[in-house]
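= Protein in question =
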Amino acid sequence: MKLGTLLLRNAAIGLSQLEAALRNQVLYGGRLGTNLVELGYIDLELLSAYLAELSGFPIATPTLLDQADPGLLEKLGADDAHRLGAIPLGYLAEGNVAVGLVEPHDTQAVDQIAGRLGAHVTPYVVPELRALYYLEKLFGLPRRARFVRSGRTADGQEPEIPDERRRTQPAAGMVMPPALTLEPRRRRPTSQAPLGGTVPFAIGFGAACERIDGATNRDQIAEAFVAYAQGRCDALVVFLIRDGNALGWRGWVAPPAVPRRPIEELSLPLGGASSLQSAHDAGQPFVGSPPSAARPVEKQLWAALATQPEPFAVLVVPVLVKQRAVNLVYAHTSSAPPSQLVAELGELAVRAQASYLRLIRQARGS
């Protein structure tokens, strides 16, 4: 039985709530339970109880996680703990270790952990959100921006795990750029040199369209944008839009530049005047110089991407689902973004919208 079916059967959630969580899962990722908690439909304790019922494994409670054995944590190591979604809790008996797992039925992960710890592993189930919090707390592994929440829950209470790293929107007025007119897209001959001139195209525009049209999950959509960017842009970042922030999801930076921080840790406020805010509010591509002379948001992004010198102009294309921006695709080149790049990224965004809607329908029907 699936988690959604179990929750519906026990009247813990309604059908409309399940559909909303499935929609958010397609758009923003994370497990179904994570999205139900984030939407305020259930809390982590109730989710833990249902995961235990569904999996047949005991719960890795906050008390057990707070008392995790330091020697076992060190033995497993931060990288493997993060990769396997695992937190060693302590010895149940000689040669038998309790381990909190996001995927307790993953026998390959259990075997790998047993090999690292040199002991038999007894799995305990832990919700994804709680596991990510304790991976950060115990191992110093920062959560991806997508899993850092701000504000209050649906019942008006503070979130279970407060975090100050997600910034709120600053108060300021909007300065909109001049209206943009897209030129008709022209097919590029296969022999044409890359726009950047130094990096070959990873894939053609047609191949990027096919990848997005045939995507079977959200990650394939983002990866198609990144592959398309190689050889055409100096940098491209696909952002998720949540809680009034643009959260890094996937990205690419042309060598020799190396980002100073992982794309997944980026969190930029949508407020004031910025190219991201303009594209988000208008629901249309933004192209040109950032609207604020100080460029506070863009400067944060350029610093994270190790962009030198600062771009003369940028391009931001929104991906809309039901008239709401769910992604912003940011790109810059060494000169003003070519009209061909603007048109093709715009068309890829329209195709991404269609793929999201298809994946949402499939999730609801499964």
In short: The domain at 43-147 is CATH 3.30.300.160 (GMP Synthetase; Chain A, domain 3). The chain has two domains: 43-147, 205-365. The longest strand covers residues 245-253.
